[in-house]
Give the backbone structure.
Amino acid sequence: MKFLHPFLGTREDRLAEPMPPRGLRIAAYAVLFLLGAAVSVCGAFVQTLWAPLGVLIALLACGGLFYGGLRATGTKLGAGVPLAGWFLVLAVLLAPRPEGDLVLSATATAYAYLFGGSVLGVVCATLPTRSGFLFGVPAPEPRRTVKGGGR
């Protein structure tokens, strides 16, 4: 996996980068959720419109959004929020309509899009980030004990 380090970086590289301000991260989470929903709708139609190549285009868009969210916010939540928006919209698109219409039918390309997008989201959420914690909030410093029994 050493060949991916120039592209994805190491944990030490990510921890050395400065974190964006908290307000900017919160706004980015809202935008990333909406972008995840938009990529989900577009990908559902693209993967079936241009059959074999459409799945790759849709998965590239998903992977780019999830990785971009991770890098923009510096937290693992940056990849999880667009994944949540992507998945919630797909759950609605999977349900059949009363008229009998389906957006995502039971085809190999639809299953590849569902499985591939889920895997990409989980993989991006496990990549190194600028923060060692989910929300970018550092843990409190551990209490140190003083030798000799007193505080």
In short: The mean pLDDT is 81. The chain has six helices and no strands.
